[in-house]
Design brief:
Layout lengths: L10 E2 L3 E5 L5 H8 L2 H4 L10 H12 L7 E7 L5 E11 L4 E8 L8 H16 L4 E6 L4 H9 L3 E12 L2 E11 L8
Parallel strand pairs: 5-6
Antiparallel strand pairs: 1-2, 2-3, 3-4, 4-5, 6-8, 7-8
Helix pairs in contact: 1-3
Length: 186
């Protein structure tokens, strides 16, 4: 594995900036994760209290390289929070990590998640020297399935009743992407 950066780098593309999470993102983080459209396919229910966002941020701001690279996805022009992107569960000896992302409902459908995930994948493969990146996606989340497949992720298995959220069991599709299969883009 390449030498691992010990601080979270800022990554940019045409329209987005991946930057460290900040406590002043709390209101927007709460807005995002209190929306049932966002949490519908997550492993937790929609938040009901702003303090949940503050606790979530306080915990995640303390995480960092080399085991987690968790970014706020921000509008490049305004630096306003619009979502999250993360490479986590990094395993140096195995050259592997997991990918996660979320996006404000008002910004969905613009290709911003694809842009952010591309930057995270570029970083994972090119800077961290990863060989494999995995994504765990609820099969009902068709937009995330399409995003993963568009970038070259392969469906490797179905994990039945993997999550229990709000009294309902949910399946997961395990996607895997190898360095040589990654469909790079602009």
């Amino acid at each position: 594995m390449a030498e691992i950066p010990q601080s979270l780098p800022v990554l940019e593309s045409e329209r987005i900036r991946l930057r460290p999470l900040r406590m002043d993102d709390a209101a927007e983080v709460f807005t995002m994760f209190s929306d049932a459209r966002v949490t519908r396919y997550w492993s937790f229910q929609a938040w009901t209290e702003p303090a949940q966002a503050e606790a979530w941020l306080a915990e995640r701001i303390g995480w960092g390289p080399p085991s987690v690279y968790g970014w706020a996805m921000a509008d490049r022009a305004s630096d306003a929070f619009i979502g999250t992107t993360a490479l986590f569960s990094l395993s140096g000896p195995l050259h592997r990590a997991e990918l996660g992302y979320s996006l404000m409902p008002a910004r969905q459908g613009e290709g911003l998640a694809t842009e952010a995930v591309r930057r995270a994948l570029d970083f994972g493969f090119d800077v961290l020297g990863l060989e494999r990146i995995e994504a765990d996606v609820d099969p009902r989340n068709l937009a995330s399935c399409r995003l993963a497949e568009r970038l070259g992720f392969q469906r490797e298995g179905l994990l039945r009743n993997r999550w229990r959220v709000g009294g309902e069991f949910a399946d997961s599709i395990l996607y895997g992407l190898l360095r040589g299969e990654y469909r790079r883009g602009p």
